[in-house]
Amino acid sequence: MRALIVEDDPAMSTMLTRGLRRAGYAVDTAATGTDALWKISENAYDVVVLDAMIPDPDGFQVCRRLRDDGHWVPVLMLTARDSVTDRVRGLDAGADDYLTKPFAFAELLARLRALARREPAERPAELRVGDLVLNPATRTVRRGEVPIELSAKEFMLLNELMRRPGQTLSRSHLIDHVWDFAYEGGSNVVDVYIRYLRDKVDRPFDRQTIVTVRGVGYRLDDTA
Q1: I need a labelling partner for 45 at 20 to 30 A (CA). Which of 4, 6, 118, 212 fits?
Q2: Residues 170-195: tens digit of each pLDDT
Q3: Quick check: 21 and 3 in contact, CB under 8 A?
Q4: Cα–Cα distances in Å, from 198 out to 55, 133, 206?
Q5: Helices then strands (H, E): number in the chain?
Q6: What is residue 135's DSSP assignment?
Q7: pTM of whole model > 0.85?
């Protein structure tokens, strides 16, 4: 999953970036409302963590402009204020959820997982392709009743494939959603991680569900 952090406090931005990357997110950052609006217009994000008090336009204005322009990416708004008025203002501007600083990082992760399941293309609690099951909330994967251990990046790559079963996803799409804006490596990193996934979710079960579409990318099929 790809997240945008909009935060003008360098220490807070660094903390959020490191924490989300450790959790397997691809992370981009913006320090101003103007930069945030540009990045959201140019990139596809799964969730936005938006500080309310950023340089103009502030977080409330950014959120309202996104909704006015038809961008429905889930937004978690952060603020140091805890008044009911500010919470209501943020929700009225179009934020999906609200978290007051200081907060526990574990709570932020839980809220992001909940928001990701409520994105415009409503997601079920579990993603299923045949007998392959992925639970975004518990971050678990199983084939039938057999649990499968994946690294954070492997999990995010499989999550992206399972959200669009049968659809061929290009390497650039997968890099955009599983890695991040600052990634400068080659697209062969996708091939490497696809191989890791096949070694864990297909080969031990005598399956070939991760299909290579030559010259295009990969898709996940419900086939034996």
Answers
A1: 212
A2: 988 888 778 765 555 666 889 999 99
A3: no
A4: 45, 15, 10
A5: 8, 12
A6: E
A7: no
